[in-house]
């Protein structure tokens, strides 16, 4: 069954005349008759009664007409909308990210998932070591979305946040360190230790809460704040202390290091920050399920 057969059938059902149907379709009466005959043979039913040079729909033909007319109109509307869709320009969205290890796993899959969508997504690396003002980047429209932890954007009514995952803190230790044998670490185990805490300038609210807890539960600990996670790894490998980082910074390729969950009671949302009055909100809403799917697929392996 092809589109020409369907057109012939629908118009003939309305005109009940081969000549009028032929005129409407700009084809010969014999072509109309041929298409109807082929359609009946393919469906193995009789669609029209032909008596005394008059035709009328059979009950089966009437049933087929009512169902086919609805589907044909839907198909026609879809084809027309496809043409309009094809003419549309791609929506442009700028995404800022810091390239933490977890992002190296899920972002490539995310980009593959949105490949067929009418979205021109540009991704831009944000160097956290230079303490970029990510709030200003959103407000100045340098970025439409920024992947980071929620508390950085706390108390800013102009910025919205869409959480993707929720994580706590991890302790980074060398694998041959006895503390690495623990499945989790209590802060009291870190008394009088050198602790290298990942932070930014100005200090993140979650880090302020963490340092207060350390001072309370792990007295005599020496806290050093560092904004470069690479430097934290170097200091840990040099036996100069233990790292304390957001668990999203875990890197499974650090074969000589262990990342051990720390019982702090502090949880942080990682996800998309965006300007609430952005013109790209509808496009962002289309991207979120793709990001969630990508994270779900890689989270267990990560």
From TrEMBL:
Q: Which UniProt keywords apply?
A: DNA-binding, Transcription, Transcription regulation
What GO MF annotations does this protein's record show? Answer: DNA binding; DNA-binding transcription factor activity
Q: Family, per the entry? A: Belongs to the LysR transcriptional regulatory family.
Give the protein name, as stated in the record.
LysR family transcriptional regulator
Answer yes or no on keyword Flavoprotein.
no
Q: Which residues form the HTH lysR-type domain?
A: 1-58
Q: What top-level branch of life does the organism fall under?
A: Bacteria
Q: Which InterPro entries match?
A: LysR_HTH_N, LysR_subst-bd, WH-like_DNA-bd_sf, WH_DNA-bd_sf
In its UniProt entry, the species of origin is given as Candidatus Lactobacillus pullistercoris
GO cellular component labels: protein-DNA complex
